[in-house]
């Protein structure tokens, strides 16, 4: 598959920025709001935003179970910030009614790096990406408290896990779509293209 079709979950969050980054990285990118649109994509990005709102909207739009089925079925998926939270098997500091998709054997702490006014940028060494550190934009960012044995840690910041991979599923605490550096998106597009 030379040009994979990759969707961006378009219920809430920084959808437009991901669509642009995916296009720059060589994918045919399209928004996904309905189950029939989800069925047409080779991979999916779950953007940053507000994870509680995103999970509620996924229920309202009838997308929660189709999303779970596709992720469990091996669809390559990449989550940033709130998307990382959505892909966690377990959450800390979440509302009791918050739903996740699962997909990565990890425990994620919501808003771990602080509130909106404590947002920051930092250079992050990222395993599997050449050319030096990537610029991480951390906005009310989570971190990963712990991972299972099948999860590869791709990046840390100040001794906290901020990027992981399990099979075809990748998650980052930070927002690479908000920088001009599309190497993380290229890594994901290659994952979709190569099926690895």
Describe the 3D structure:
- This protein is α/β, with parallel strands linked by helices and 196 residues long.
- Helices cover 26% and strands 31% of the residues.
- The protein contains six helices and twelve strands.
- It has helices at 15-24, 35-38, 51-60, 64-72, 82-87, 183-194, and strands spanning 5-9, 28-32, 43-46, 77-80, 88-92, 104-109, 120-124, 134-138, 143-147, 152-157, 160-166, 169-172.
- The strands form three sheets. The chain has a seven-stranded mixed β-sheet. A three-stranded mixed β-sheet has the order 5-6-9.
Set out the fold topology.
Layout: E1 5-9, H1 15-24, E2 28-32, H2 35-38, E3 43-46, H3 51-60, H4 64-72, E4 77-80, H5 82-87, E5 88-92, E6 104-109, E7 120-124, E8 134-138, E9 143-147, E10 152-157, E11 160-166, E12 169-172, H6 183-194
Parallel strand pairs: 1-2, 1-3, 3-4, 4-12, 5-6
Antiparallel strand pairs: 6-9, 7-8, 10-11, 11-12
**Could you say which overall geometry the principal axes of the C-alpha atoms support?**
globular
Q: Report mean pLDDT, rounded to a whole number.
A: 93
Provide the gyration radius in Å. Answer: 15 Å
Sequence of strands across the biggest β-sheet: 2-1-3-4-12-11-10
Structural class: alpha/beta
Report the end-to-end length measured between terminal Cα atoms: 13 Å
User: Can you write the helix and strand succession as a string?
Assistant: EHEHEHHEHEEEEEEEEH
Largest beta-sheet details: 7 strands, mixed
- Multimerization status: single chain
Helix content: 25-40%
Pick out the low-confidence regions: none
Report strand %.
Answer: 25-35%
Number of strands: 12
Output the number of helix runs: 6
């Amino acid at each position: 598959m030379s040009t994979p079709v990759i969707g961006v979950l378009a219920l809430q969050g920084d959808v437009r920025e991901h669509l642009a980054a995916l296009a720059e990285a060589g994918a045919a990118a399209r928004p996904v709001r309905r189950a029939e649109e989800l069925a047409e994509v080779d991979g999916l990005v779950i953007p940053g935003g507000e994870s509680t709102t995103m999970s509620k909207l996924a229920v309202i739009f009838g997308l929660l179970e189709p999303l779970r089925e596709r992720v469990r079925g091996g669809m390559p998926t990449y989550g940033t910030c709130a998307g990382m939270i959505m892909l966690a098997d377990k959450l800390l500091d979440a509302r009791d009614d918050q739903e996740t998709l699962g997909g990565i054997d990890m425990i994620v702490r919501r808003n771990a790096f602080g509130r909106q006014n404590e947002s920051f940028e930092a250079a992050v060494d990222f395993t599997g990406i050449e050319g030096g550190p990537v610029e991480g934009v951390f906005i009310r960012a989570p971190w990963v408290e712990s991972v299972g044995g099948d999860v590869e840690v791709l990046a840390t910041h100040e001794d906290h896990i901020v990027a992981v991979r399990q099979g075809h599923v990748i998650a980052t605490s930070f927002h690479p779509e908000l920088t001009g550096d599309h190497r993380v998106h290229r890594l994901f597009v290659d994952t979709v293209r190569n099926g690895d």
